Amino acid sequence: MKRIKQGLNVLTTLTVAASGSIAYTNAQNVQPYQGKIGRTLAESKEWWPEPVKAPKGAPNVVWILLDDVGYGAISSFGGLIRTPTLDSLANNGLKYTNFHTCAISAPTRAALLTGRNSASVHVSGFSHTVMSAGFPGWDGKIPSSAGTIAEILRENGYNTYAVGKYGVTPDEDATDAGPFDRWPTGKGFDHFFGFLGSQTDQYSPDLVEDQWHVTPDGRHLSEQITDKAISYIDRQKKAAPDKPFFLYYAPGAVHAPHQVDKFWSDQYKGKFDKGWDVYRKEVFDRQKKLGVIPANAVLPDRNPNIKAWDKLTPDEQKLYTRFIEVYAGYLTYTDYQISRVINHLKEIKQLDNTLVFVLVGDNGASKEGTQNGDIDRTLLSKALTEQENIQYNLNKINEIGTAAGTETNYPLGWAQATNTPFRNWKQDANSEGGTHNPLIVFYPKQIHAKGEIRTQYSHVIDILPTTLDITGVKALAEIKSVKQDSIQGISLAYSINDAKAQARRTQQYYYIFGNRSIYKDGWKASLAYHPDFIDLGQPQAQNSTSVTFDENAWELYNLIDDPTERIDLAKKNPTKLAELKALFESEAQSHNLYPFITWDDVLNGKIHRTKNSKSFIESAKDITKARETK
């Protein structure tokens, strides 16, 4: 474990503040001029600064970030969807089973890239115009004082590449006119190939290469970004074989639209005919056997908004089964594309010296597919009754997942199933179902505890300092003459060789548009903004002002005794609840989370980045109108 020990020595140049944040005390120094300048050349002595080089033996680094994957989807964490590449990485590395994200895409990505809480880097919501606001924690503009992992590694001798989804470039900057300082190439990446927004059509993507939009070639986006990633690696290794690289591989998969060739989706025909209730039970049992959930975990009841599978009509079962077949095929296809990168590293003899992190989801399973699933996603959709919606989808069942511009997303029943064993789903920062994702760490050169489980509580902001620790790279006090804010993540290097090490992250706050929670030493207090709030396209969302929000309806859970949040202890332990509520308020204030912006504020157009920006509802109506006129 020489490299890890060298990495751990980096901690001697850092101090850990009382909050657990990393504060800088040392960084790469600017080399003072060491030559001699005389009146003539003969009286002078030339001097050249040493070129920046990565620490000797520093590994390549690959971060893989999947989109909208619940805890109970992939096979190495008990799911029924085949992911042989991820399984291999997990079985030859470490499985972190108590890892957490921010419950929705942009905050997770901002936190991951910077090692700081999302509100601290201005991304409490999104970088989209209609879902950000003119406040320090909400404007969607990551500041230069929050340097990214790419900026740090590039300043320390790495080449840096990003492919796939970026998701944290402000809308008003995302044209070929720039400005480009908040594009990936302005945030430390030598090259970028992918899309800047939250989602895109996989066959006709809003595609960007470096600093301009390019025309897609008609192939699936995941294939294109994989080709590009491999080409970046090969070009660099040919020019500088000893120089390490950092690859940020973030496919649009498996966010909607679920699009994949039928070769993949048809492999799952008949595999889910037993329905989502049986899926949950089978996955839960598998998770227990694999040890990826605590032995005392109990499977929560089915969400009351979801019908029992055996109460559905044959047409409903037929329709909903096809949705999950497409999703499963899409995930297996994504795994295949990841295998191309991993196998290529093996072929060029780089895999053993490559540190790989796989974040299996930037949040829990997607709640955005509505009760009946989506084929033509328009957020507000058409004013159809449930039966009309089902019939509409049945008439287009053969189009689900095709390249015909469909906006496929599975129904809520499958969101809960692929989120097993947790309650709720994406957007629900109050629930483990929104924030609890698998993490895989793979590094053949140093990790020899093959397939072992780590249960230490951890958060997405911890990936950056862990990477610095293991690579031996030092954080920087300044980047481009801008003083850097403290990194708030805590390195997980301490747990790599010690499965029983005490968790160093003891608290963490969560907030997404009203939904909120605070974790502290095994206890968790949470508040759902709208307990019945299912999806942006649901009636209760469109008329959300009619739903009463009770700011006193906090819940309290002991996650050690009750890891799936089944038993609310708020009334039995009001003292602990009050303590955690006060801690949440303190965290909110210190991390620039105020003001508390909610889904109501977004849906009803109460926040505007610019004078002419439209409300979320108005923008959704424009989308609907545009599609209907095509």
Structure description:
The structure is a single chain. The longest helix has 34 residues, at 314-347. The radius of gyration is 24 Å and the shape is globular. The chain is built from 17 helices and 19 strands. The strands form four sheets. Strands 3, 4, 5, 6, 7, 8, 9, 10, 11, 12 and 13 form an eleven-stranded mixed beta sheet that branches. The protein has a four-stranded antiparallel beta sheet with strand order 16-17-18-19, covered by helices on one side. A two-stranded antiparallel ribbon has the order 1-2. The protein has one domain (2-25, 53-505): 3-Layer(aba) Sandwich (Alkaline Phosphatase, subunit A). The model is unreliable at 1-29, 533-546 and 610-630 (pLDDT under 50). Helix 1 crosses helix 12. It has helices spanning 2-9, 84-91, 105-114, 149-155, 221-239, 262-265, 276-290, 314-347, 386-395, 412-418, 432-435, 463-471, 493-496, 539-542, 574-590, 599-603, 616-628; strands at 14-16, 22-24, 60-65, 94-100, 159-165, 191-195, 208-209, 212-213, 245-250, 354-359, 436-442, 452-454, 458-459, 478-479, 482-483, 507-512, 515-520, 523-527, 555-558. The protein has 630 residues and is α/β, with parallel strands linked by helices. Keywords: Calcium, Hydrolase, Metal-binding.
